[in-house]
């Protein structure tokens, strides 16, 4: 997977730079979402893997499946990917593009897993606190995991803050073993 991400990175950067210069970040983000969903369909994967189709035919099929949601410049991007045999990288390109867009907009998504449903005011306070700490606009997504017993676990990118009772008990158990 790391290799595919490496292959996708220059395409994602190029798409991001174009979209930023053209003031179309949101439009290209949405087009990449649609394209990634199409690229992940089994029938499309089979059609793209068929060796009997030329790059132009593969791009044409892909664009037809996506429908009217792609502008001319994005269709050219799809054609470039097809001619370089990189259409399968679109889901990776979408993820990398989203990361670049979030950095540009200074936003970050945070996943909060708690032992119970958190009240809205607590989520807002948490978002404000994380926003100040991370110097970014924070979008909080919450989920419930009863096995935590209490507290919460906060995930964002590669950062994890474990404030759960289960996590604290595990640390205590480890400390007692050593």
UniProtKB/TrEMBL annotation:
<keyword id="KW-0472">Membrane</keyword>
<keyword id="KW-0375">Hydrogen ion transport</keyword>
<keyword id="KW-0066">ATP synthesis</keyword>
<dbReference type="Pfam" id="PF00213">
    <property type="entry name" value="OSCP"/>
</dbReference>
<keyword id="KW-0139">CF(1)</keyword>
<protein>
    <recommendedName>
        <fullName>ATP synthase subunit delta</fullName>
    </recommendedName>
</protein>
<comment type="function">
    <text>This protein is part of the stalk that links CF(0) to CF(1). It either transmits conformational changes from CF(0) to CF(1) or is implicated in proton conduction.</text>
</comment>
<comment type="similarity">
    <text>Belongs to the ATPase delta chain family.</text>
</comment>
<keyword id="KW-1003">Cell membrane</keyword>
<comment type="function">
    <text>F(1)F(0) ATP synthase produces ATP from ADP in the presence of a proton or sodium gradient. F-type ATPases consist of two structural domains, F(1) containing the extramembraneous catalytic core and F(0) containing the membrane proton channel, linked together by a central stalk and a peripheral stalk. During catalysis, ATP synthesis in the catalytic domain of F(1) is coupled via a rotary mechanism of the central stalk subunits to proton translocation.</text>
</comment>
<keyword id="KW-0406">Ion transport</keyword>
<keyword id="KW-0813">Transport</keyword>
<dbReference type="InterPro" id="IPR026015">
    <property type="entry name" value="ATP_synth_OSCP/delta_N_sf"/>
</dbReference>
<dbReference type="InterPro" id="IPR000711">
    <property type="entry name" value="ATPase_OSCP/dsu"/>
</dbReference>
<dbReference type="InterPro" id="IPR020781">
    <property type="entry name" value="ATPase_OSCP/d_CS"/>
</dbReference>
């Amino acid at each position: 997977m790391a290799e595919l991400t490496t292959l996708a990175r220059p395409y994602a950067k190029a798409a991001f730079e174009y979209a930023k210069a053209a003031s179309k970040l949101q439009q290209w983000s949405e087009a990449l979402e649609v394209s990634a969903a199409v690229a992940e369909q089994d029938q499309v994967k089979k059609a793209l893997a068929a060796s009997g189709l030329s790059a132009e035919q593969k791009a044409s099929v892909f664009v037809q499946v996506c429908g009217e949601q792609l502008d001319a410049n994005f269709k050219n991007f799809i054609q470039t990917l097809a001619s370089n045999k990189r259409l399968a990288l679109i889901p990776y390109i979408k993820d990398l593009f989203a990361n670049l867009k979030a950095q540009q907009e200074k936003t970050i998504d945070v996943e909060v897993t708690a032992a119970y449903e958190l009240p809205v005011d607590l989520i807002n306070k948490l978002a404000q606190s994380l926003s100040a700490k991370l110097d970014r606009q924070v979008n909080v997504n919450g989920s419930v995991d009863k096995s935590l017993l209490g507290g919460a676990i906060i995930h964002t990118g590669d950062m994890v803050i474990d404030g759960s009772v289960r996590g604290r008990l595990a640390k205590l158990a480890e400390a007692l073993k050593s």
